[in-house]
Write a structure and sequence with these properties.
The complex is a heterodimer of chains A (333) and B (260).
Chain A lengths: L2 H25 L7 H8 L6 H34 L12 H15 L1 H4 L3 H21 L5 H25 L3 H12 L7 H19 L2 H7 L3 H6 L4 H23 L5 H13 L3 H26 L7 H24 L1
Helix pairs in contact in A: 1-3, 1-14, 2-3, 3-9, 3-12, 3-13, 3-14, 4-6, 4-7, 4-8, 4-12, 6-7, 6-12, 9-12, 10-14, 13-14
Chain B lengths: L3 E10 L2 E11 L4 E5 L6 H8 L6 E6 L2 E2 L5 H5 L2 E4 L11 H6 L14 H13 L15 H14 L4 E5 L7 H16 L3 E5 L3 H7 L2 E6 L2 E6 L1 H4 L2 H8 L1 E8 L2 E9 L5
Parallel strand pairs in B: 3-8, 3-9, 6-7, 7-8
Antiparallel strand pairs in B: 1-2, 1-4, 4-5, 9-10, 11-12
Classes of the chains: A mainly alpha (333), B alpha/beta (260).
Chain lengths: 333, 260
């Protein structure tokens, strides 16, 4: 099959799968509603319980699954292309860890009890600080390696501060809340959470989604990309800020959901080819599918136990990561 | 008009002056061999011309200062084949050659018919069309070198710069590539290639520029530039130098005695 035909087929299939999973996400839950009734309630302007469940509980959950999944898949594909490294993902440049730290500070200090929006806002602030710090550490013409190393340093520091907060927390409930939040979940999010994250996610998508051509040229290395008319400094800035805005906002409302950005581009490369520009839309759809599917699964596997989404993606993702390192080692040997 | 003009170009990397006030011009039809020992500044100079390294002085492409030309517009005038040949993603040969069309594409644009035509012509020229769908990981060193040259050709620029394009090639591939570069110059392109293959450079280049410690030591016809004396003072070797059937033969024979 010609590559571009397979590419379009894959994109269409992923698009349909995303739609199906989105509808499933709307219709799976503890309240036993029929498909027809739940979709009707979604658009109903009556203030009954079913409409409330659909509009205030399931819709934000499905929308967040869709947008956060797409964000994680897209940013993973962009970072792998930018860093020219198949093991890259948003967590690598310190964004997840510092967004978590921001959220932890909000929970720890108790601001969240007074002002619920403080949680996503401070998580987002954490992501921004991380990116500014990484950019400052790496310097204006920082190389890819310095960005990764700066990211590792920022991640470690944020992790240490998070542990410190858990360590010193006088209130066991706050510790528990911090722990649970860090596991990553879409349970009990409201439309307010969605509207808070959406603008940042959208801006991030615009910044990341337009990088395809530049990332393609980067396949040949920095010097060749520069000679092909790619402004490396601008590309790097755009990729890092775009990731901060979108992944920062995603982490801010859902906690740390790992491995999506790592796993999805790898699963899709055999289907859409290795050209980064093709991987971007495919990974966005693939990420949305993975997070929506995982979020449906946690509701089916253990409806009573509130299994955390981030736990599930990590259980699937970490062995995949090991396999990937193994495969890379074979390739390099 | 000159395709390329350098005027007092000076490059500092850190605190080190790598290129010291270099001036030269390249006209259409010239195949310039950029030669000199390791560390002479050849790669740095080529990277500066292609926008990869900041410099002081003037580098003009068709009369316009390089730094005032937008990067994509510059990429339509000048193609560059860097020394780095590592291709990180395993794309196909035709996808790789298609990357040469990047400057002509809009952010979401795919290759249009004129782009595909340029890609086909470049592949035909480098004789790689037969394996256009093959992934680059399955290419031999010689095939990969041809594919990378085809990528630069697909860019359809009047100027072509190449940093040691023949490094790592066997004699046949080396000869073939030098012939192709010479052929491009004959068609009216300006070609600059850095190389350590002095014999081939002397045979195929219309002109040699010899760099040493960031300065131009000699600039002229190959037989004027390559002398036993310069081999001794610049490269530090004694060399056998002869003309056989109209072609230069140059073979270093021993290390030169250190002066003093």
């Amino acid at each position: 099959m010609r590559p571009h035909i397979r590419y379009r087929l894959t994109l269409s299939a992923l698009g349909i799968l995303t739609l199906v999973l989105f509808l499933l996400s709307l219709t799976v839950g503890p309240a036993a509603l029929t498909f027809r009734a739940s979709i009707a309630a979604l658009f109903s302007d009556k203030a009954d319980v079913i409409a409330l469940i659909m509009q205030e509980v399931r819709l934000p959950r499905a929308l967040l699954g869709l947008t956060i999944g797409a964000t994680l898949g897209l940013s993973g594909a962009v970072l792998q292309g930018l860093l020219r490294n198949p093991l890259a993902e948003p967590g690598l440049i310190g964004i997840s860890a510092s967004a978590s730290l921001g959220a932890v500070i909000a929970i720890y200090t108790g601001i969240t009890l007074v002002f619920p929006l403080a949680l996503p806002l401070s998580a987002f602030a954490g992501a921004l600080v991380a990116v500014l710090l990484v950019q400052a550490l790496a310097g204006a013409r920082g190389s890819i390696l310095t960005i990764i190393l700066a990211g590792v340093a920022v991640s470690s520091f944020a992790g240490a501060m998070t542990s410190l907060a858990l360590n010193l927390s006088p209130n066991p409930f706050a510790s528990l809340e911090i722990m649970f939040w860090m596991l990553g979940s879409l349970t009990d999010r409201s439309m307010l959470h969605f509207w808070l994250a959406a603008p940042f996610i959208l801006v991030g998508w615009l910044m990341l989604g337009t990088l395809g051509k530049a990332l393609n040229a980067l396949t040949l290395g920095n010097d060749a990309a520069a000679s092909l008319g790619i402004d490396m400094r601008r590309i790097q800035m755009q990729a890092v800020l775009g990731t901060a805005a979108s992944v920062g906002a995603a982490t801010a409302v859902a906690g740390a959901i790992g491995f999506v950005g790592l796993v999805i581009p790898h699963l899709l490369r055999p289907l859409v080819g290795n050209l980064p520009s093709r991987l971007l839309p495919a990974s966005a759809l693939g990420g949305a599918c993975m997070v929506l599917a995982a979020d449906i699964l946690v509701r089916i596997i253990a409806p009573e136990r509130d299994l955390k989404l981030g736990v599930l993606t990590a259980i699937v993702g970490a062995p995949f990561f090991l396999w990937l390192v193994h495969a890379e080692r074979r390739r390099l040997a | 008009m000159n395709l390329l003009a350098l005027d007092n170009v000076h490059i500092k990397l850190g605190s080190r002056d790598v290129i010291k006030d270099i001036s030269f011009t390249v006209a259409p039809g010239e195949f310039v061999g950029l030669i000199g020992p390791n560390g002479a500044g050849k790669s740095t100079l080529l990277r500066a011309i292609t926008g990869g390294v900041p410099y002081s002085g003037f580098i003009k492409i068709k009369g316009s200062e390089c730094q005032n030309i937008a990067a994509p517009a510059r990429a339509m005038e000048l193609a560059f084949l860097p020394q780095e040949r590592d291709i990180v993603w395993n794309i196909s040969v035709e996808e790789l050659v298609g990357l040469g069309r990047s400057p002509y594409l809009t952010p979401f644009g795919s290759l249009r018919s004129n782009d595909l035509h340029a890609v086909d012509a470049a592949m035909k020229r480098m004789d790689i069309a037969a394996f256009r769908t093959r992934p680059v990981s399955e290419l031999s060193g010689g095939e990969k070198a041809r594919v990378l040259v085809a990528r630069a050709l697909a860019q359809e620029t009047p100027l072509l710069l190449a940093d040691e394009p023949t490094a790592g090639l066997d004699p046949a591939h080396n000869l073939a590539l030098m012939q192709i570069l010479a052929g491009l110059a004959e068609e009216g392109k300006g070609v600059i290639a850095s190389t350590h293959d002095l014999g081939f450079a002397a045979t195929y280049c219309t002109r040699l520029i010899l760099l040493d410690q960031g300065r131009i030591v000699a600039d002229g016809k190959p037989q004027e530039v390559l002398t036993k004396e310069r081999m001794r003072t610049v490269y530090g070797v004694e060399a056998y130098l002869a003309t056989v059937e109209g072609r230069t033969v140059l073979q270093p024979t021993s290390l030169a005695a250190k002066p003093g």
